[in-house]
Specification:
With 172 residues, this protein is an alpha/beta fold. It has six helices and seven strands, in the order E-H-E-E-H-E-H-E-H-E-H-H-E. A five-stranded parallel beta sheet has the order 4-2-1-5-6, sandwiched between helices. It has a two-stranded antiparallel sheet with strand order 3-7. The protein is globular and about 55 Å long.
Length: 172
């Protein structure tokens, strides 16, 4: 009897990644140990002001994971579960830093199961050294010209401080 080949385990890690931080990177690196492919879905929301352009945010992720063929970077609008279906992902990845994160993510998970049965969410509890890192806090540090060392990769720091960003929108 021949063993049936196992279908690829594909996960979608959705977010704005404005900018990608070491917290996001930690989740992605841990996810690569569990999944055959991880799709980083950079969400486009015309109602949300971002500090960095969509092209820049996607480019940073591609550059950081250059040489890792199991990471794919896409953009999407609309419902996360619809994008998960479109890229063949059966799993959503989410990071948890605190109890409020869990409560928020739990309500999103319940709604996602209502919208798309069969897509499961996998939660990664942030390691101690990345628990306090969020894109929101990083943007605040940037706004006031503080040190980003240890929060985002060095090449991103160089780009950010080489030319301060003008407010960007997610309009495609």
């Amino acid at each position: 009897m021949h063993a049936q080949p196992r279908p690829n385990r594909v996960a979608l890690f959705p977010g704005s990644f404005d900018p990608i931080t070491y917290g996001h990177i930690e989740i992605l690196e841990r996810a690569l140990e569990l999944f055959d492919q991880v799709v980083v879905g950079v969400g486009v929301n015309s109602q949300k002001k971002t500090m960095f352009s969509l092209v820049q945010r996607m480019g940073w992720i591609v550059r950081y994971f250059e040489g890792e063929p199991r990471i794919q970077v896409t953009q999407f609008t609309g419902l996360t579960v619809e994008h998960a279906k479109a890229v063949g992902a059966r799993y959503l990845l989410r990071g948890l830093r605190s109890a409020p994160d869990f409560e928020y993510e739990k309500s999103i998970d319940i709604l996602n199961k209502h919208l798309a049965y069969g897509i499961d969410t996998v939660y990664f509890i942030a390691q101690a050294d990345t628990q306090s890192i969020s894109s929101t806090l990083v943007r605040e540090v940037i706004k006031y010209g503080g040190s980003l060392k240890g929060l985002v990769p060095d090449f991103i720091i160089d780009e950010i401080y080489a030319q301060p960003p003008a407010p960007a929108t997610d309009a495609p």
